[in-house]
Amino acid sequence: MLKIFERWHERKRIYYYRFILFFSFFGTSSLLIALSKRKETPIIWNKIFRFFNPEIKYSKFRIDGDLSAAILLILILSLIMGVYLYLFERKFIDNCRDMAATSAIIALNLLLIKFLLPIPTYAVPAFVGVILISLLIDVRVSIIFNVILSIVTLLIVGMNNLSFALHLFVTGSLCAIVSHSINNRLQFISHGFLASLISSLFVLSTELVFKMNEAEVLTTSANSFIGTALSFIIAYGTLPVWEYLFDFTTPIRLMELSNPNHPLLKRLLLEAPGTYHHSLIVGNLAEIACEAVGGNYLLARIGAYYHDIGKLKRPFYFKENQIIEEDPHNRITPTLSALIIISHTKDGVEIGKEYRLPRQVLDIIKQHHGTTKVAFFYGKALSQNQQVSEEKFRYDGPIPQSKEAAIVMLADSVEAAVRALSSPTPQMIEATIRNVIQEKLLDGQLNNSDLTFKELEIILENFIKVLTGVFHKRVSYNIFEDSSNKSDEVMVRSENIHSKSAR
Ligand SMILES: [Fe+2]
Ligand SMILES: [Fe+2]
């Protein structure tokens, strides 16, 4: 019963945000078109608009026939957009955060156009919203909003000009497409410059083809360059605000986190070097597998880089960081050992928050062990005839809630399992990886991850390709090191036991 209520509550929230989205588009558009139609402004807006334009006169608000037609047009557009989003963009229309951000971006974009209109029309930064939606949410959603925003912008500007309409539609779509592939700050400049250049050439050609405004062809073309460039500059400048307000993780933010000079990665390298190197391999594995199944591979890589930062609290309790002979676990009970091992996910989230890691990365840290059992210490406790409950030896979870988190979990486990093989052959590596994936599947750890069986097979193939290259070659050198072989084997076996429980 409680679940039904929760679901209804969640649905209600989604309807509420859908209404906000509709209102922000329909309401803002209608209001601004109304203001454009009338030279005078209504009472309630008088003071606000006076601030921007002291020449505005006070008057009562009145709707004329022309305006009603414009509002009807906006209503039809809103409904068409609503139906399209409902049928083809369900992911967007069911995500409250994305709808809230889009509502705010659209409203501010339209206000920006309206208030900057005293500058030449083509130089108005009309594409800020399109760029932001493409960067933060989705390129397809951005393109559909561009179609509708183009028509509304045309109505607000009050221009009956085919060249300008085409400019809004084509340059807007171009901005959405190029913004989608922006991964760092430098690309912001290069992609922005390219889009501005193409935009000015496009306006130049349309003006000449349609002979719209022959006398001012060059000025109009230069203005369109300025307008597009300004759109990129404003989008770039306000991006951190949107990231912060709506908790977005952009590729730009992720690329910053991949820099080895990031203070947290530096700490990991100095204080837990074994974990650092393990995380790098897991990062490569996760990225390749995630790219192959069409997930957010950059997020998977960064999530993997930071997945074990919780080990910074007690690095020497984890085998990969033990440089001294004695294992500290020998001095404590298996229950305490399990507690220390299990707490590295919770500690990781705390440390991640301190360093302001994005929420999606924190989710991966929290979910990378799901609710799996720390089998080694559970077995050790049982062998010592202790009365222990299995629950105390399981990670807190939750199980991975996204493709990326599940792939990091699998990459983490297969890397540890393959590394623990004493003399791996390609067949052994494949069998081990298959085994690990099967175990996680049977244990229900992948139930909420959206991964299909087909995708699991693709992930498996990619893991085999990478790990065979890394571990098979390394073993061929060891064949000739007969004197150290035995001690190596002992170390690897002991790591196997620990890694199964701790990584
Ligand atoms: Fe790990
Ligand atoms: Fe871990």
UniProtKB/TrEMBL annotation:
<feature type="transmembrane region" description="Helical">
    <location>
        <begin position="15"/>
        <end position="35"/>
    </location>
</feature>
<keyword id="KW-0472">Membrane</keyword>
<feature type="transmembrane region" description="Helical">
    <location>
        <begin position="126"/>
        <end position="157"/>
    </location>
</feature>
<protein>
    <recommendedName>
        <fullName>HD/PDEase domain-containing protein</fullName>
    </recommendedName>
</protein>
<dbReference type="Pfam" id="PF07698">
    <property type="entry name" value="7TM-7TMR_HD"/>
</dbReference>
<keyword id="KW-0812">Transmembrane</keyword>
<feature type="transmembrane region" description="Helical">
    <location>
        <begin position="164"/>
        <end position="182"/>
    </location>
</feature>
<feature type="domain" description="HD/PDEase">
    <location>
        <begin position="271"/>
        <end position="426"/>
    </location>
</feature>
<dbReference type="InterPro" id="IPR052722">
    <property type="entry name" value="PgpH_phosphodiesterase"/>
</dbReference>
<keyword id="KW-1133">Transmembrane helix</keyword>
<feature type="transmembrane region" description="Helical">
    <location>
        <begin position="99"/>
        <end position="120"/>
    </location>
</feature>
<feature type="transmembrane region" description="Helical">
    <location>
        <begin position="67"/>
        <end position="87"/>
    </location>
</feature>
<feature type="transmembrane region" description="Helical">
    <location>
        <begin position="188"/>
        <end position="210"/>
    </location>
</feature>
<feature type="transmembrane region" description="Helical">
    <location>
        <begin position="222"/>
        <end position="242"/>
    </location>
</feature>
<dbReference type="Pfam" id="PF01966">
    <property type="entry name" value="HD"/>
</dbReference>
<dbReference type="InterPro" id="IPR011621">
    <property type="entry name" value="Metal-dep_PHydrolase_7TM_intra"/>
</dbReference>
<dbReference type="InterPro" id="IPR006674">
    <property type="entry name" value="HD_domain"/>
</dbReference>
<dbReference type="InterPro" id="IPR006675">
    <property type="entry name" value="HDIG_dom"/>
</dbReference>
<dbReference type="InterPro" id="IPR003607">
    <property type="entry name" value="HD/PDEase_dom"/>
</dbReference>
